[in-house]
Amino acid sequence: MSADAAATLKAFAEQNNVKHLLLADFRREMIPAYGAMVMDEKLPAYRYAKRAFFVIDRQGTLRFQKIMDNALDLLSPEDLLKALKESGVS
Fold it and tell me: Residue range 56-85: average pLDDT?
């Protein structure tokens, strides 16, 4: 799920040969429900999405989530693959 526009995600997927579905939440309607939205009127960008990782199965069930406190932190490819395997999503 990304706060980017759907067209941006489509271009990213095409450029990087991504086969799985990328979800866009440009209006920021879903991101708060997953606990990944920061809303602080004291900040210049007072409403922004945290870097977060979600695995959602085909039935729409959330199988894994990791919300990062620092936007520069990433899950390692090994950690993400482990989360996918443990979730049972293929």
Answer: 88
Q: Which residues of 27-53 are buried (b: 16+ CB within 10 A; e: fewer)?
A: eeeebeebebbeeeeeeeeeebbbebb
29 CB-side CA count, 13 A: 6
Q: Is the dihedral of CA 55, 52, 45, 4 positive or negative?
A: negative
37 close to 3: Cβ distance less than 8 angstroms: no
Report pLDDT digits (tens) over 46-55: 778 888 988 8
CATH (residue range 6-87): 3.40.30.10
